[in-house]
Design a protein that fits this description.
The chain has 405 residues and is α/β, with parallel strands linked by helices. The protein contains 14 helices and 13 strands. A 5-stranded mixed sheet has the order 5-4-3-6-9, sandwiched between helices. A 4-stranded mixed sheet has the order 11-10-12-13, with helices on both faces. Helix 1 crosses helix 3, helix 2 packs across helix 3 and helix 10 packs across helix 11.
Length: 405
């Protein structure tokens, strides 16, 4: 389980019994789905396991049903987190739109939606729309708002993880230090975790069957960021939440290009999706169609437009140069590229691969897997649900869950 504790200044809760914690963690992670398997894997006495399982069933947190197996004799009983135990609500904010999802505590998605609203209107307007839509989604799926157990919000900016707010975000005017966590906590009466969107993307990718850690995720969108999942499955955020903010590392060429942060020559200013669109003269939207730009760029690439291909390869070279430094510094086992620019074709992937293998030493690359996102635009939502589930079944989260059951 990840050891990061959700921020918010909440009063410490009494510790959950070790045996109960072990049993519920086994069931929640699906590592064990029967009483016998839990006893075998934890070393707890069968009587202790049965006592804790019965307690969890009585509280409505766990359910036990006949397993879908054809066996002789008494049918086996399978344990799982009850779908009635509570709900998780998550949001993944991007510059032009916000993805929403609700899931049960086992991570099964119950509903999804998108709020088509730019971050430029400020946090209060967007969060009001998001809150309203999440409440509607909960009602539509028969979920009580009072039983929301955790909320996770991803922001496309450096995030102060403890305070639950963005820190001087270049692409989010009016969001600096706005208490996103406190705002959502008041709306849902549940613990809230606010994190960087690429951290959530990295967590989402790390949940996939073929994933390996340490994992480095790179998102190339309106900005450029990195998320780092360590070998033990936790996120490396840095001392102040600025880890992975690679969009403002200076590119080796085009040093005269002014970035939105006020500096010149930033990677974001020369290699982001927004920078490529601007150089090719593609409008970000047309008649309110937010997908106009990526569709137009995809059309140019499909038509083998020389300018478009050249500009994308330029961006790939700049990104690859910075990523090669990260590979040396972090020595990841897997490098995942995501975002609208990387979804076009293999140009970005091949360009980054070429730069990394050319500039990084063989020791750092001999076992490195470089690939595109398996989840695409779903990565952030998947990671947010995974993070929320970890928090719900952490020591303090379980104490809260038991107290509210």
């Amino acid at each position: 389980m990840q050891k990061d504790a959700p921020p918010g200044g909440e009063q410490p809760l009494p510790p959950v019994a070790i045996a109960l914690h072990k049993v519920l963690c086994m069931i929640a992670s699906r590592e064990a789905t029967s009483r016998a398997a839990i006893a075998r894997l934890t070393g707890l006495a069968r009587s202790t396991v049965s006592q804790q399982v019965d307690n969890l069933i009585d509280l409505g947190i766990v359910q036990e049903s006949e397993a879908n197996q054809s066996v002789r004799g008494r049918p086996p009983r399978a344990l799982a987190v009850s779908p009635l135990a509570g709900t998780i609500a998550v949001l993944d904010v991007d510059v032009a739109a916000t993805q929403l999802a609700i899931s049960d505590l086992s991570g099964t998605v119950l509903g999804r939606d998108i709020v088509d609203m730019s971050v430029d209107g400020g946090p209060e307007e967007l969060l009001a729309a998001v809150t309203e839509r999440l409440r509607s989604m909960l009602a539509e799926h028969g979920q009580d708002t009072a039983r929301v157990r955790h909320v996770v919000a991803g922001l496309p900016a450096p995030v102060d993880f403890q305070r639950g707010c963005a820190v001087r975000p270049p692409i989010m005017p009016g969001w600096d230090a706005y208490p996103v966590g406190d705002h959502l906590r008041k709306q849902f009466g549940a613990p809230v975790t606010v994190d960087n969107d690429v951290n959530l993307m990295a967590l989402g990718e790390a949940t996939q069957e073929m994933a390996d850690t340490p994992l480095l995720a790179i998102k190339v969108a309106s900005g450029i960021g990195a998320g780092i999942v360590t070998a033990d499955g936790s996120v490396h955020r840095g001392a102040d939440g600025a880890a992975g903010d690679i969009g403002h590392i200076r590119a080796s060429t085009r040093g005269d290009v002014i970035c939105r942060c006020g500096k010149t020559g930033c990677l974001e200013a020369v290699a982001s999706h927004r920078a490529v669109l601007a150089d090719l003269g593609i409008a970000s939207s047309s008649f309110g169609d937010g997908l106009h730009a990526p569709r137009e760029l995809a059309r140019l690439v499909a038509d083998s437009d020389t300018r478009a291909l050249h500009r994308i390869r330029q961006a790939a070279a700049h990104i690859g140069e910075v990523v090669a430094m990260l590979v040396h510094t972090l020595n990841p086992r897997m490098l995942v590229l995501g975002g609208p620019l990387t979804e076009l074709q293999d140009e970005i992937l091949s360009g980054v691969r070429a730069a990394v293998y050319e500039q990084a030493l063989p020791l750092a690359t001999r076992k490195l897997i470089i690939t595109s996102s398996q989840l695409g635009t779903d990565a952030g939502i998947t990671g947010a649900i995974a993070l929320a589930s970890r928090e719900v079944f952490s020591q303090s989260g379980m104490a809260r869950l038991l107290a509210e059951a």
